[in-house]
Amino acid sequence: MSDVQEVEVSPVLLDRLATVLSAERAQRLRESAVRARATFGDRVVWHVSATAHGGGVAEMLQTLLAYGKGAQIENRWLVLDADAEFFAITKRVHNMLHGEPGDGGSLGADERAHYVEALEANLQAMLPEVSRRDIVLLHDPQTAGLAAGLRAAGVRVAWRCHVGRDEPNHLSNAAWAFLRPFLEHVDAYVFSRKVYAPDWLDPARLFVITPSIDPFSAKNTQLSSADVAGILATVGLVAGTDTGGPFHFARRDGSSGTVRRHVDQGGLMVDGAPPPHDARIVLQVSRWDRLKDMTGVMVGFTRLIADRPNEDTHLILAGPAVSGVSDDPEGAQVLQECREMWRALPEALRDRVHLASVPMDDVDENATIINALQRHADIVVQKSLVEGFGLTVTEAMWKERPVVASKVGGIQDQIVDGRDGLLIDDPNDLDTFAAALGVVLRDSRLAERLGQAGRARVMNDFLGDRHLSQYVDLFSRLVTGNGEFSSGRK
Predict the structure, then answer these.
(1) What is the pTM of this model?
(2) What is the pLDDT of residues 119-161, one digit of tens each?
(3) Does domain 5-212+463-480 have CATH number 3.40.50.2300?
(4) Please, are residues 290 and 98 in contact by the beta-carbon 8 Å criterion?
(5) Which range is least confidently modeled, 206-210, 212-216, 262-266, 270-274?
(6) Domain spans, the chain
(7) Class of the CATH-defined domain 225-461
(8) Strands across the sheet with 75-79, in order?
(9) b vs e for 224-249, b when ≥16 Cβ sit within 10 Å of the residue's Cβ?
(10) Is the pLDDT of residue 393 over 80?
(11) In this structure, how many other beta carbons lie within 10 angstroms of the beta carbon of residue 430?
């Protein structure tokens, strides 16, 4: 029997989010909450995901459920319990939905049988908890196999896919063929981009809801320049300055945490020393995932600085401690590939490139460290080969950091090239990538203008009030069985 886990989320009042919104937007948000309470009644809205931390889905769920509870909507969150083979299969599906081979394994009868068996155990653990009047939103390929069993029990089910490919290929088609039997009877499908949806989906049940960030989360809350410097010195991500402190942060449950002195254990750098505190920093934050192309970022950066030996600019590639992300079995392999490439660099270049592994045992501390890193950076990069949406782009834009990113997936929904950031048409074109970095490094006025425009874009389009209201529309449709979305259709 599966030991499916429930993630506890403490309520947060909508009034907190309303403080950054216009009066009109704040009023619309409150009206959505009133409508939700009237429509949902005593129903529970369940979310089911693969992990409670380690990616954008988990971060959004923490925020959206907290505000939902603060609005007196009963939200609950379950996390799958499965073995390593299950997550290897679903990571393969994830990669193939992006059109990439991943580990090169198959999605045949044996993989399907293992997938079904693992999810059947989770389903049996869930059914005693979920009422037939409730609503369930399943997230991503790992959970798709739960849909038929929940529908058979009379539960209204939506499935949200956070990944996809703009132009299908044989690999993405194979992944959709694997998932299709599990999804055909789902009540609603939610995608971050309409083009991600396969053409066999019923368009009347297809809805588009883009992701969002919370400006008050530990990842995005305002930090002073002194706190940024002190936090990074405390955890060993910069050198040559006093740590000061202690540095406190607000946890998701409302309690206070303190940033630990990781510098006493050698800091968070995987190999080598941290950069000087006053160096200019190019930063990419992402999972250790081949689709994020950390090695490509390293090569492009070294091409840039090879021609600028006297400029004190450094690269930090920061990812989660690989032991802390249960649903991503490739993480350790990709980190090792990055380490081997780093070791092969000439010493003068190796001293300017830094790999950071940020602990996941305290997710709020992790978010605080990433917040400080992003605010410290002169340029934030997201040179993904493919990308579902790219919340690390949204986060950097909110912090007024100039962003250089690939023109792929949801990144191109956030950035207008030259206005909100700089986009690289071909993420494999490392010379163009290096040149774009050089343009921003040389032009401080451009960097400032891109940063300011990026924050304005996030304020307008990618905060949680829009996301929450669209969820109210989605769940209301599931409850009533009729009507259309008032927002979110594309």
Answers:
(1) 0.91
(2) 999 999 999 999 999 999 999 999 999 999 999 999 999 999 9
(3) no
(4) no
(5) 262-266
(6) 5-212+463-480, 225-461
(7) alpha beta
(8) 5-6, 75-79, 45-49, 135-139, 156-161, 188-191, 206-208
(9) eeebbbbbbbbbbbbbeeebeeebeb
(10) yes
(11) 21
